[in-house]
Amino acid sequence: xxxxxxxxxxxxxxxxxxxxxxxxxxxxxxxxxxxxxxxxxxxxxxxxxxxxxxxxxxxxxxxxxxxxxxxxxxxxxxxxxxxxxxxxxxxxxxxxxxxxxxxxxxxxxxxxxxxxxxxxxxxxxxxxxxxxxxxxxxxxxxxxxxxxxxxxxxxxxxxxxxxxxxxxxxxxxxxxxxxxxxxxxxxxxxxxxxxxxxxxxxxxxxxxxxxxxxxxxxxxxxxxxxxxxxxxxxxxxxxxxxxxxxxxxxxxxxxxxxxxxxxxxxxxxxxxxxxxxxxxxxx
Length: 283
Description:
This protein is mainly α. The protein folds into 2 domains: 96 residues; 139 residues, no CATH class. Helices cover 64% and strands 0% of the residues. Helix 8 packs parallel to helix 11 and helix 11 packs antiparallel against helix 12. The protein is globular and about 50 Å long. The chain starts with a helix and ends with a helix. The mean pLDDT is 78.
């Protein structure tokens, strides 16, 4: 227990290597406690406090640790322990994720790229955790975090200051969620949100489309992961982003047509209006 407390004090170390090793060590200790029937009180309190603060090293370390713990539980198929961790942090995450993803926060959408990237990882893990628990018959409180953040994620993608790689990751995550593939690497391919969640996600997408937000998404700049560039020097389309966005739009409209009666919102998005906006976007 004392070792865990000492490692927690190194979470927000200025040395990235020390911080990373501390996160890994504490996460391993948390998993040990979980397998012995309890959540580490020190870890839980530290993370809950960090989630109430402004973005920075403590928040990043907390998100990394929580993501690591849930990812390990997912790989082991331990839905009961996963449900226990989700219940511990559900209310705090419901307030934290939308706040961080707001483009009006602090320095704007270009200010906290690392923190936002970590939150995108966490959202995928939370999506997969929810799917695993529901498949095992667990009754989870609240709504899917990814569904609650869909509007802010797409609005964030339209910010010109956002790093192209982060925009790409956000759109790929939404695409994977809509085609029931979010977190499949950790669940053995068995993933997928319940129908009401997926319909809510699709409706959120179409509502953002109807507001014209997606017209601000930049498509220039090819997907590039290092090495030596070859070919012409002129601008090219980011095909990964374009494909992901097309799948998001098409799948959302398909779900709107198939399950419109199951959408939870009181006023469904007009499919005609969405089609008009999509047509304008494609042009």
